[in-house]
Write a structure and sequence with these properties.
Elements (H helix, E strand, L loop, with lengths): L2 E5 L2 E4 L4 E8 L8 E6 L6 E6 L3 E3 L7 E6 L4 E6 L8 E8 L15 E4 L3 E6 L1
Parallel strand pairs: 2-11
Antiparallel strand pairs: 1-3, 3-8, 4-5, 4-9, 5-6, 7-8, 9-10, 9-11
């Protein structure tokens, strides 16, 4: 059974950094596009970043967040710098249905078929 487990969330102050990890079991992450999404209270879940043959970022995190993967550890990371209160949310890791997808498709939740349970990130201002 494929499983994604996120970790690394926590409570930080504005301007701090955090690195989220997404460890996979039962599947090989390098064979698929991988994405990070987030959901704040009362809001829709939104795209944050994704990686396949290239990295794609939402405008709100571009220049502050970096997505990467370590295929030897079967893990995807989200390095978050210069955190802002608006970044507070539950962050979800997701596995894409394919490795190569369009830039538009990689930002859509429908392009992902496995999701982690989420990790909470809270940024105090």
């Amino acid at each position: 059974q494929a499983q994604l487990v996120e970790s690394g969330g926590g409570l930080v102050q504005a301007g701090d950094s955090l690195t989220l990890s997404c460890a996979a079991s039962g599947l090989t992450l390098s064979s698929y596009a991988m994405g990070w999404f987030r959901q704040a209270p009362g809001k829709e879940r939104e795209f944050v970043a994704a990686i396949s043959g290239r990295q794609v970022y939402s405008d709100s995190v571009k220049g502050r967040f970096t997505i990467s993967r370590d295929n030897t550890k079967n893990t995807v990371y989200l390095q978050m710098n210069s955190l802002e209160a608006e970044d507070s949310a539950v962050y979800y890791c997701a596995k894409g249905t394919f490795l190569w997808v369009t830039t538009q498709a990689i930002q859509r939740q429908a392009s992902y078929n496995y999701w982690g349970q989420g990790t909470q990130v809270t940024v105090s201002s």
